[in-house]
Amino acid sequence: MTSEQPSEVTVSKPVRTGGQEQSVPAGARSGRWVTVAAPLALVALTAGWLFLGAGGVRTVAVWLAFGVLVLCLGAVGVSVLRAGAARDRTYARAVRAASSAPGGDRPAGLPARLHGTPWPSVRAVGLLVGLPTLVCLWAALAVAEPDAGGRAAALREAGAVTRQLRITAIEHEVTEGRGRQADATAWYTVLLPPANGQRGGRGVPASFTADTERRQEVGGELYVGYVPAHPELGAVGDDQQAEVERKLAGRTVEAATFWVVAGIWILVTLALCAGWWREGVTRRTACSTGEGWVALRVRVTGGGKHTDAPPVEGTDQAAARERRDNTRQLECLLLGVDGTDRTVPFHGELSSTVAGTVLAGASGLLVWHPQRRRSKDVLAELIGDDGWQLPGALPARVAEDMAAAAPGPDRGALPGAGRQVRLLDLGAGWSATVPKPLLAGLVCSLVSMGALLAVPDNGAWRLWAGAAGLLAPLAAPLVGATRAAPDGD
């Protein structure tokens, strides 16, 4: 940037890649399928595991969703093994696929119609939905009590009801803490009403283990689930009615934990999607160009960083703090404006370093409308002379400065007759760029998930399996990087 602009730009040296590139991005079709199917499968699996009780509906929903996840991982694995490539190669393939659009014989013309960003937006939403859902799913699987058989299942099938009954005996009590309010686990015995319902009849003793939120005493009352016509089937109980109903329904997560896990999952997912909807600089619909649009002839000089620091009057601590709080570091493409020595930072949801390497030397039009703003940015499009359109944004202050200084013929440029472009989706081949160590970690994670779904046994092993499944995708790349690192001198 010039001295007239209080922003700093650090340029990364562009390096061109060689070799012949395919015209279709590798893994684009499988990547699109996984982009849609994987988040939906995760949501269905998590919702089924949290909200549905035991039965055929939950079994079908859970295992069908798990099967879709297996297919998604298989599709990514095939893409990696068949056409795996570094990100610079997939970016170059995407450029070739988007180049040579009809009407490319008029590179100086402004396209009459600009594309929206359907698949980049779907990928962003899928990622924002999938990540918190996956964390929530691991938490739910780890703390679950998926006892599909046993007494609760028999009571559920026989039509159990819930009543408050007195405790006649307490054995094997284990407390967590001291005092009456300490959590307790014990073997409780109650007397169930006789099957004939006659008053004065002899009650049927029933015993069960329960985790209560406070210590109980003989003579106190618990909520008990049992079948009035068949007291011989036994009972289940707890000091919370919701927990008894949860056991009878066969839901896998404790009532108190359910609200915490489900609430955090829903709130975090909605917050992430709302934040992206408000701030995402590549999200847009198709639009027409015309009067009021600004167009500059530019060339890509590489990738780098741009410090967007707003001008703040004064030199006191308050002014310094305001400047610091509103300063952003942006990874961006650096565009040189033809006929000047000025550089424009163009940023988007992409790897700007790799994009700068692949697009270095490309020329075209940088176009935007001053009223198409989002947060601190103005939405902009980089239109390559080869016929591609790359969505991104300019810092609002930079866009204002460049619009004011733009040469007369370029301001308010009119659409060129017949000028058409194709959307340049640099992330279309993402599935071919997944590192093999990460793929191995995902396989381990999926195996752990299958074990937690298939084995109804409760115990501490579930916590360990859940932790292993959550951390495996994170640990595998670290192991790969450690092995690939050169030995020190």
Short description:
This protein is an alpha+beta fold and 489 residues long.
Percent strand equals 15-25%
Protein structure class = alpha+beta
**Low-pLDDT ranges:** 1-8, 11-24, 408-413
The helix content is 40-55%
H/E series: EHHHEHHEEEEEHHEEHEEHEEEHEHH
Main sheet summary: 8 strands, mixed
SS element count, helices: 12
Number of strands: 15
In whole angstroms, the N-to-C terminal distance is 40 Å
Radius of gyration: 31 Å
Can you describe this structure?
This protein has 489 residues and is of the alpha+beta class. Helix content is 42%, strand content 23%. It contains twelve helices and 15 strands. Strands 1, 9, 10, 11, 12, 13, 14 and 15 form an eight-stranded mixed beta sheet that branches. Strands 5-4-3-6-7 form a five-stranded antiparallel beta sheet. Helix 2 (56-83) runs antiparallel to helix 11 and helix 3 packs across helix 9. The radius of gyration is 31 Å and the shape is elongated. It starts with 7 loop residues before the first strand and ends in a 5-residue tail after the last helix. The model is unreliable at 1-8, 11-24 and 408-413 (pLDDT under 50).
